[in-house]
Model the fold of this input.
Amino acid sequence: MTPETTSPTAGKPCRLTVTSSVRDVCLFSISWVDGKVSVHEVKSDIQPAVDRWLTRGINEYIGPRHDPMPRHTDADHPEFLPRLKDYLERQFPLFDYDLQR
Done:
């Protein structure tokens, strides 16, 4: 995937829900519609991280390990929630991620 790659459903409304299967609890649920992000539920422990993603966006490295490329995605970008899901799945593989479009 290159920084310019977008999914075929980019720009369509979507909702990301992250849950802990160990505790069977929703950690946070946010939606994206026309560049606007809405927070539906968030646990206080993860509130600072959610606030940071919404205000600063996501900074990540993508591509092969021997030649990674930096990529920044603002919260108003059509691929924000899919990229946030991918990023979190790599960082925290024990949580469950549900992205609905």
Q: What stands out?
A: The chain is about 20% helix and 40% strand.
